[in-house]
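Human:
Class, as today's exercise, you are to examine the entry below, and be ready to discuss the fold:
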Amino acid sequence: MTEPTPGPLTITGPSPGKMKVIDDGGDYGILDSNGRMIGEAYRVIGIREVADARANATLWSASPVLLAACEAVDRAASEFAIRFRGFPLDDDDLTGGVSGSVNIDVEVWKVVRRAIAAARGGE
């Protein structure tokens, strides 16, 4: 996978509606650091079905910061493990396969690792 678009990302909107029959406005664009549109969050997603386009665009624009935060937590946990026991956290720590594991909430670390993998195109 290629690298995600680096931040900061911003949003623009809401868009005005173009149709007179239905209210089709309210979309938000996601812009890269050069002001180029890299995506759009739609308000109208189906017949009589709408989404909170602003909330979706805001979450999307925060994704580089959220990824950096998850990576920082992962690094800090691994660095703590190296200092505590001499080697970094690994998959055995996630499954409980290593005795004397570091004092880290394994469930939190699993969520952090899943978030990083999802952001990088994995599972």
